[in-house]
Design brief:
Blueprint: H1 5-10, E1 27-28, E2 37-45, E3 50-56, E4 61-65, H2 73-81, H3 84-94, H4 99-110, H5 118-126, H6 130-133, H7 141-156, E5 160-165, E6 174-182, E7 188-192, H8 195-203, H9 231-237, E8 269-270, E9 278-283, E10 288-295, E11 298-303, H10 307-312, H11 318-323, E12 338-341, H12 351-357, E13 364-366, H13 368-371, E14 381-384, H14 390-398, H15 400-408, E15 412-416, E16 434-435, E17 442-444, H16 450-454, E18 466-469, H17 481-492, H18 497-504, H19 515-521, H20 526-539, E19 544-549, E20 553-560, E21 563-569, E22 576-578, E23 598-601, E24 607-608, E25 618-626, E26 637-643, E27 651-658, E28 664-670, E29 675-680, E30 702-705, E31 715-721, E32 733-734, E33 742-759, E34 766-770, E35 776-782, H21 783-790, E36 796-797, E37 799-804, E38 806-815, E39 820-825, E40 831-842
Helix pairs in contact: 2-3, 2-4, 3-5, 4-5, 5-7, 9-20, 17-20, 19-20
Length: 844
């Protein structure tokens, strides 16, 4: 084959030429003259690339022109071992990476510890942006362990089971999850996910904005294992090697007591209060021995443990941590005003004053008589010590209403109820009472762990919408997963950002994308709650996505039995909402907002915008993008904007969509808003429209609809012509086969699959998205026409189909004395095509 470098370079303005066939590609065809000469090829074509097969009837030889990226041997082996439906997408992704990284990722597939994991591993590699895979701190074992954890958790979770369809050697094997649930009538039922939903919204190791890294929960920075952890296993199981998120602040500050034998005992236990508490220590039967309750803006602590006696005897310093504890996960400042209410020294020593002195704090000591009229508002914290007479505890119980108001207003109350005095029957704040005798054991519990929360859960959901399940509710061990996961998140996220700033004095509070860090911090607004809910839900094998609105809110959807169900936990140890479309706060559902757009980011960076109709009335925009030659432009990014929520003189992105093969992008947005749009394309000719009052020097977009026009159900169409002509090759005319010796050609050329390879708007790197309706250009050329095409000269074709899905000709007269080329050319801007070429030529 002749493929001079000069000719290849001459065509770079039209299509890429990554390689040409060589003499090594020539195949001798043995047989009598009536035997056909056949050349076939299956190739991947990037934008502007072509593939071709050649048949030379005279010499009975064939040749190929295949631009498919050549990968490392290890990568080729991994692709061969991946399920067939993933191979092309995997090839596209690996071709974006350096050979050494190709080999490293390929080994995850070829050396998978369990053949069941191969599809999950291959999917994760193929659909993770090259930016993440090439990060300096990226650890490839994330992908393998992520898959292994899914199968491990499937064996333990009663309501969900991973189901593999096809054996490990089956080229078409896929996996899914089967769930047990109830319908709205309470009848047991089950459903399974479509495999695509399983892979994207259960398997993928990325949630949305975060980079794919092992993260140290204590710093939020990338770190090697075991200090660095991935969210799936960490949120489900926690980690004693990194940071155990179950460990309460009381065991960490100011004294680190996590690895000490505290040697604690108790005289009794606490009854369940009105608001379900965070149980730091429990007895062997699960009764609370040291609990924390978020009551309004403040904190209530209650215990029956003998901490003061242990401290008096020179034991562990848990008493110091308790008396210096402030309002939720903070240590009180040394100048805090503390009331210590006691009639006698506990255990004959002033242990509470001594413990406070370790924090440089000096209490105001009052007796039970003074306490009866004490102005609680003058103090930050009120401590009721242990080992007091019944009369003091009776006086405290008498002021329960005042103490509850004090806590609700932001104060802290500590009730040490370890005493030999008869106090059973007294009711303390939050309806706390003491009961029973000494427990058989004292067990640390701390923050709830997801594994312990759901391990006995029989169903996903009972099919009933729940407008708001109180954050103060107790967990129901044999309840439903959506309830218990919501409870788990709320119990681990008891402060919003403003509350955290108020109690810590940290003005620039951290806002992390990483669930590992979020659950360590135990505070956050809707963004952190949405990320942690997604991590917890996916760890528990539920298909969960994070929704974000321009109007400053995030929540979740979970895919249940064929539809996305809204799912939200409100901040500050708040309620869980299930199947309540009002969680978006749109005015259509009684809220105060006029929602514009909702988006969720797939693990590969593709922004999906399909959720707004579940939360608001909508309008539809249809934008058609063409070049100056009226050719549709695929893969153009169409950005829709509206006024920013907090600054109407600025813009916020309401949604992003990409044009399909027909050059059309369709976007559904909320009604009642002003909308602008902007179009950009790799073809060039960006549309730029200056807009008054919106800084035309930096933002150039055009208004597409005014708020008065965007009534429910309205449809707006917009044609956009880019100021560019996208270069493509085109046949001049169909050629006559001539009067010489004739042969008969059979042509079968067509598309097998097609993808848009586009740049993510919210993340770095490329997404790969299957598209329909793609087309290519097909030509059957003589050798002279082939040479003319490469020389960028007009050329004729014996057969042609332009902008078509295929070219199929069962019988065509062709010249017998000249080599023939069957060409497939990709004229698109961003689409990658898989084509199959089959050319058969036989002498008459």
């Amino acid at each position: 084959m002749s493929c001079p470098r000069a000719l290849a370079l001459a065509l770079t303005a039209v299509f890429a030429t990554p390689g040409c066939g060589s003499d090594d590609d020539v195949v001798d065809v043995v047989g009598d003259p009536p035997e056909p000469v056949i050349s076939t090829l299956r190739a991947l074509l990037g934008p502007g690339q072509l593939a071709a097969v050649r048949v030379d009837l005279a010499s009975k030889t064939t040749d190929l022109f295949d631009p498919t990226a050549v990968l490392s041997d290890a990568a080729e082996q991994a692709i061969a071992e991946a399920p067939s439906w993933l191979r092309r997408r995997l090839r596209i992704r690996l071709a974006m990476l350096e050979p050494a990284l190709q080999d490293e990722l390929a080994a995850l597939i070829t050396d998978a510890p369990d053949a069941r994991f191969v599809d999950e591993i291959a999917f994760s590699i193929a659909n993770t942006q090259e930016h993440d895979l090439a990060l300096d701190d990226f650890d490839p074992t994330i992908i393998t362990d992520n898959a292994a954890a899914i199968y491990e958790f499937s064996e333990a979770i009663p309501y969900a089971e991973v189901v593999d369809i096809g054996g490990s050697g089956d080229a078409d094997r896929v996996s899914t999850v089967s769930y047990d649930t109830l319908d709205a009538d309470g009848v047991s039922s089950s459903f399974s996910l479509e495999p695509e939903t399983y892979y994207w919204w259960v398997v993928h190791p990325k949630l949305d904005h975060e980079e794919l890294l092992l993260v140290d929960p204590t710093t939020g920075e990338a770190a090697a294992a075991p200090t660095g952890v991935h969210w799936r296993r960490y949120v489900m199981q926690s980690s004693e090697q990194s940071f155990d998120y179950r460990d309460h602040y009381l065991l960490r500050e100011p004294h680190d007591l996590r690895d000490q034998d505290l040697g604690l005992s108790a005289t009794s236990h606490l009854t369940d209060p009105t608001i379900y508490p965070l149980r730091v220590f429990v007895d062997d039967l699960g009764h609370g021995l040291l609990v924390e309750v978020d009551l309004g803006a403040g904190t209530l602590l209650a215990t029956t443990l003998d901490m003061a006696q242990a401290y008096a005897d020179g034991g562990a310093s848990l008493l110091v941590n308790l008396v210096t504890y402030g309002n939720t996960n903070v240590t009180l400042p040394s100048n805090a005003d503390i009331a210590l209410v006691m009639d006698s020294l506990p255990w004959g020593q002033d242990v509470y004053s001594a413990a406070l002195a370790e924090g440089a704090m000096v209490p105001t000591i009052v007796d039970s008589t003074e306490f009866a009229t004490l102005d609680l508002s003058a103090f930050d914290k009120v401590i009721i010590p242990s080992d007091q007479d019944a009369s003091l505890y009776t006086a405290v119980a008498a002021r329960t209403p005042a103490l509850e108001v004090f806590v609700q207003d932001g104060g802290v109350v500590q009730l040490d109820l370890h005493t030999t005095a008869p106090i059973a029957g007294l009711i303390f704040p939050n309806a706390i009472e003491v009961a029973g005798g000494p427990p058989a054991a004292v067990v640390e519990e701390g923050q709830p762990r997801l594994w312990d929360t759901i391990v006995d859960t029989p169903i996903v959901w009972d099919g009933i919408p729940y407008e708001a399940m109180s954050g103060d509710r107790p967990p129901v061990a044999d309840g439903m997963a959506m309830d218990l996961i919501g409870w788990f998140v709320s119990q681990n996220m008891y402060d919003n950002v403003a509350e955290y700033r108020a109690v810590t004095g940290i003005v620039n509070a951290e806002r992390s994308w990483y669930p590992q860090r979020i659950i360590h911090n135990h505070y956050g607004n809707c963004g952190e709650l949405g990320d942690l809910m997604a991590a917890a839900g996916r760890s528990a094998l539920l298909p969960v996505r994070v929704l974000s609105s321009v109007e400053d809110h995030c929540w979740n959807d979970v895919f249940i039995d064929g539809r996305w169900v809204p799912w939200q936990v409100s901040w500050s140890d708040g309620a869980t909402h299930i199947d309540n479309p009002g969680v978006g706060y749109d005015e259509e559902y009684g809220g105060s907002k006029t929602l514009s757009g909702l988006y969720t980011i797939r693990g590969d960076g593709y922004p999906e915008d399909s959720a707004i109709a579940a939360h608001s009335d909508t309008v539809t925009f249809v934008v058609s993008v063409h070049d100056l030659a009226d050719r549709p432009i695929d893969g153009a990014m169409v950005l829709f904007a509206t006024e920013a929520f907090y600054d109407p003189e600025a813009f916020s992105v309401a949604g992003v969509e990409y044009t399909g093969a027909d050059g059309v992008a369709e976007m559904t947005l909320g009604n009642g808003r002003n909308y602008w749009f902007y179009v950009s394309s790799l073809a060039g000719g960006w549309v730029e429209y200056p807009v008054a009052d919106h800084d035309p020097a930096t933002i150039k977009i055009e208004q597409i609809a005014e708020a008065s026009e965007t009534t429910a159900g309205a449809v707006f169409a917009q044609d956009v012509v880019l100021d560019v002509t996208h270069p493509v090759i085109a046949v001049q005319s169909l050629a006559d086969p001539g009067a010489g010796d004739q042969a008969v050609a059979t042509i079968d050329a067509g598309l097998v699959d097609s993808w848009v390879v586009g740049e993510g708007f919210f993340t770095e790197g490329h997404f790969i998205k299957n598209v329909t309706g793609a087309t290519a250009r097909y030509y059957l050329l003589t050798q002279s026409a082939w040479d003319a095409m490469w020389a960028q000269l007009p050329f004729d074709a014996l057969a042609a189909a332009e902008d078509a899905a295929s070219l199929q000709v069962p019988s065509l007269s062709v010249p017998a004395g000249e080599p023939l080329w069957l060409v497939a050319y990709n004229p698109n801007v961003t689409e990658t095509l898989e084509v199959a070429l089959d050319l058969e030529v036989v002498a008459p």
